[in-house]
Amino acid sequence: MYKHRVKYTEGDIRIKTIFIAEDDRDLQRLYELLLGLSGFQVLGIANNGDEAIKMFRSFPEKPDIIILDYRIPIKNGLDALKEILQIDHNSRVIFASADKTIREEVYSYGAKGFLDKPFTHKKLINTLNELLS
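^ thats the sequence. predicted structure below, dont judge the formating
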């Protein structure tokens, strides 16, 4: 299990935090690299939906944004979304999936964004910044 980190600040600026549920190790590393280079802090990475919910519950301070993959093991991203929003209905969740057929469904359950895989670094950062503004 990925150890989650504590939120931190740089001077007077609080770094925006991201929590990721993604089972592909290469994508996990890519997210962490791209988000770090773009000024975000990855609080944690879950490998499956069940782990995502457990980790989310354990955060002393909830992340600014959650990125969920749809096809993750044990509990898919849609089920994880529903449970996370039951825990904290103010959570901002972005879905990342190659399955475009679920777009409307994830929005109907409370997701705030949807990224069609594959997506560019620019699209990822623009989506995050739009959600945070």
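The chain has a mean pLDDT of 90.
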